[in-house]
Design a protein that fits this description.
This protein is an alpha+beta fold. The chain has a single domain, classed as Aminopeptidase (3-Layer(aba) Sandwich). It has 6 helices and 7 strands, in the order E-H-H-E-H-E-E-H-H-E-H-E-E. Strands 1-2-3-4-5-7-6 form a 7-stranded mixed β-sheet, sandwiched between helices. Strand 6 and strand 7 (173-181) form a beta hairpin. The protein is globular and about 45 Å long. The N and C termini lie far apart (42 Å).
Length: 188
């Protein structure tokens, strides 16, 4: 296969048969041993998103057709992420009211190295979803572990740039802030 597969982002906050199948599929995802220090799986992050009305969880699906069964969901579910409309801290961006935060984003191990990460967090795919959940947003923001060079390269290839801001979340955990304008963004 040349290039990444055809992808779509499916909101997991909807009550549909496909959403139920995809929620089960993402809850079965595990990170590779070397990646466990860089992120958390949906087992930890999906309940937090469900409990917060400002967060919209989504699955990355590598199939243009809706999944119809558990096997299809496990096969096509290529990753997961959460869009958070409540970017409260000015430590991330100067204008949080017009930003949407991409958090808990990852690509499942079977799909890594196939262009899924870059394609799913690039315009127009992620931008359409971000504009749907945060109509006034004009900027996407994310934090990447300073030691996670691979993820930083993927985000850079998707149009994100380092802002120069660094967050110290734990003594040995430094997060670098990256942003990019929303291609379909609103703002005022």
């Amino acid at each position: 296969m040349d290039g990444p597969p055809e992808l779509r982002l499916v909101r997991l906050d909807r009550d549909t048969a496909e959403t139920a199948l995809l929620r089960k599929a993402v809850l079965g995802h595990r990170l590779l041993p070397g990646q466990r220090g860089h992120g958390r799986t949906p087992v930890a992050t999906l309940p937090l998103a469900d409990a917060d009305p400002a967060r919209t969880p989504f699955a990355i699906v590598a199939d243009r057709r809706p999944v119809a069964d558990a096997d299809g969901a496990r096969t096509a579910c290529a990753g997961f992420g959460v869009l958070d409309r409540a970017v409260h801290t000015r430590d991330l961006v100067p204008d949080p009211a017009h930003a949407v935060l991409l958090r808990a984003f990852y690509v499942a191990p079977d799909w890594q190295g196939k262009g899924v990460g870059r394609a799913s967090c690039s315009a127009p795919l992620l931008d359409r979803l971000a504009s749907e959940v945060a109509p006034g947003a004009s900027e996407l923001v994310l934090c990447v572990d300073e030691a996670n060079d691979r993820a930083a390269r993927v985000y850079g290839a998707a149009g994100f740039s380092f802002t120069g801001r660094r967050l110290f979340t734990e003594p040995d955990d430094i997060q670098l802030v990256m942003t990019r304008p929303l291609a379909t963004g609103g703002g005022s």
